[in-house]
TrEMBL record:
<dbReference type="InterPro" id="IPR045550">
    <property type="entry name" value="AARE_N"/>
</dbReference>
<protein>
    <recommendedName>
        <fullName>acylaminoacyl-peptidase</fullName>
        <ecNumber>3.4.19.1</ecNumber>
    </recommendedName>
</protein>
<feature type="compositionally biased region" description="Basic and acidic residues">
    <location>
        <begin position="186"/>
        <end position="197"/>
    </location>
</feature>
<dbReference type="GO" id="GO:0006508">
    <property type="term" value="P:proteolysis"/>
</dbReference>
<comment type="similarity">
    <text>Belongs to the peptidase S9C family.</text>
</comment>
<feature type="domain" description="Peptidase S9 prolyl oligopeptidase catalytic">
    <location>
        <begin position="563"/>
        <end position="697"/>
    </location>
</feature>
<feature type="region of interest" description="Disordered">
    <location>
        <begin position="171"/>
        <end position="199"/>
    </location>
</feature>
<dbReference type="Pfam" id="PF00326">
    <property type="entry name" value="Peptidase_S9"/>
</dbReference>
<dbReference type="InterPro" id="IPR029058">
    <property type="entry name" value="AB_hydrolase_fold"/>
</dbReference>
<dbReference type="GO" id="GO:0005737">
    <property type="term" value="C:cytoplasm"/>
</dbReference>
<dbReference type="GO" id="GO:0004252">
    <property type="term" value="F:serine-type endopeptidase activity"/>
</dbReference>
<keyword id="KW-0963">Cytoplasm</keyword>
<dbReference type="Pfam" id="PF19283">
    <property type="entry name" value="APEH_N"/>
</dbReference>
<feature type="domain" description="Acylamino-acid-releasing enzyme N-terminal">
    <location>
        <begin position="10"/>
        <end position="420"/>
    </location>
</feature>
<dbReference type="InterPro" id="IPR001375">
    <property type="entry name" value="Peptidase_S9_cat"/>
</dbReference>
<comment type="subunit">
    <text>Homotetramer.</text>
</comment>
<dbReference type="GO" id="GO:0008242">
    <property type="term" value="F:omega peptidase activity"/>
</dbReference>
Amino acid sequence: MDEARGSPSKQIPVGLDAATQEEYASVSKLLQEFTDISTIDKAWTFKSDTDNVSRAMFVISQPNLLSNKRRKSILSSHVLQKSNNSVSFHWAPFPIEMTGVSAMVPSPSGSKLLIIRNSEGDSPTHFEVWDPSQVKKEFAIPRSTHGSVYSDGWFEGISWNADETVIGYVAEEPDPPKPTFTGSGYKKEGKTDKDCGSWKGQGEWEEDWGETYAGKRQPALFVIDISSGEVLAVPGVGKKLSVGQVVWAPSIQGQQYLVFVGWPSDTRKLGIKYCYNRPCALYAVKAPLFKSDASVTKSSEAEDSLIIKLTESISSAFFPCFSPDGKFLVFLSAKSSVDSGAHSATESLHKVEWPSDGKLDASLKIIDVVPVVMCPEDGCFPGLYCSKFLTRPWLSDGHTMVLSSYWGSTQKILSVDVSSSLTDIPAIKYGSPLGKLALDAKWGWLDVSTPTSQCSEKVLSLLASLQFDIMKIPVRNVSENLTKGASKPIEAIYVSSKSRKSDSPDPLIVILHGGPHTVLLSSFSKSSAFLASLGYSLLIVNYRGSLGFGEEALQSLPGKIGSQAPNKFAAAAARNPVCNFALMVGTSDIPDWCFFEAYGREGKSIFTESPSAENLALFHSKSPISHVSKVKTPTLFLLGARDLRVPIYDGIQYARALKENGVETKVIMFPNDVHAIKRPQSDFESFLNIGAWFNKYCR
């Protein structure tokens, strides 16, 4: 007994043997090195009073595993352009952490910074307006006015007006009154404050927009006067539209308008996250007047609340953006997605002339700028796949936009390669035209030494030992029914070591994206770099149906899913996988997706909330669950318990079936994660287990 007390033995957690402990310790140490790499989330540039000097501001983030949140900071720099066309960046000595910040938006001039802090529970939302030295104004907006401000990147819309006195934004509509009950039953005209002799009921349940929007109320449009803090709801929109992406429009005959995107919300709300096939349009509405605007001649209330649909002739319009001179309104469209049913497809770019001197109405002519590309010729532009604009996309000529878009398995800026690769951590580059600015101008790109590009020597050494190539893989068994675009080769990114350690090749990890209509790029990925640094080669496959290869190739996949390869792999890892369409169609926030991917374009027209026995039979035949008896591969499942897109029972059913068949199976459940599994602790534990799982069966 005494000897045992004096020499405590090493405690092994239940379920982990000593060898597994050592494997976890080794793999987690390397994963931590990659996890610590910072990410550049947003960037702005501002003019300066001094010639040849401009200012830049960057939002950088880094996972904080202990708090299970992302730590966000602001890093600023002065950019000095020298006479020899070179530039130097003079960085602030340290980044400034922004704790509890939901959104930060600088004003157009760069003289003010809006900080928004959404609170939890019944607490108010806080608005802070900063100048270069201090907080100038701070307002607490109660939940009786509105709920949290949307900062999700989709409904999100926070826009300064031209003179930087008013901000338009999108927030959750205020909570509706709930029924009050007492010991005697229903209480009429219940008080809003808490009463120990009564309680609040739940009221009627309302649909939300599915994955990542569970429990969030409908997005609505508001404006705030940053001098007085007065907040007004923009009239006229009502409950029939969910609004987002608001921008201030150039005034028309002295009248200020707000332009926004509207999604019909008076019927079933299908999941909208990553789903561009939801119809939407651009609308305009007069900006409401504050009490301080008493000198302005007010029109009738009915006229003020009239909203105007600007894009009547097209099924999708989003991310409105005005040209610097205010003459054109440019926007993206996912009409290929809406019209076909594919959740993501080839996009198009359009514009309308803004009537600065005339009356605004719904008869604006939509002009195609970049149409949908059906079948790109070899090496030519494959179509637009950008999904959003840059924060400030205009070059100095005022009519040229900079767009970031997928081009096959790479990402391009116009026709310039993006500034990172699978073997290079993200970096900032400074671009300027060589000679006169024109559409065909050559651009020079200078590397910028930045604090965000620093990482450990070990990571730099490991990345330097890797190489990658984009392989073109011919389509086999091309049939006459296949379109020209669908017959073209697919692409796969092959990552390998520069030096062979032995005569035998490194084990290969095949990485497939979900969607299925998305794409894996040759830009930097922490998780892929980590797996390659464990000694694996990677084959990152962009199969037929991926974005970036033209619309014909994309539309060739729906209706043809469901084949398997159960005997080719030594081990497998799946994050929130689709395993059974027949189960998913009744529980997912996007049941229409099941119909479209199983039936093809026909699926859009036959979609129903009550699938028939024939529908369910086809769904089962197209699902991995129908092949489960053939599977012998040890499989790791990583599931988010709050996933509304592919609910957890889809993966659990498949895992149970594998176990029933004697297949080695492991399930890790993340109770607070949705489909993406990207909370810092969950992401870390996911790839720690993936690395250890592959090492167990492939080494």
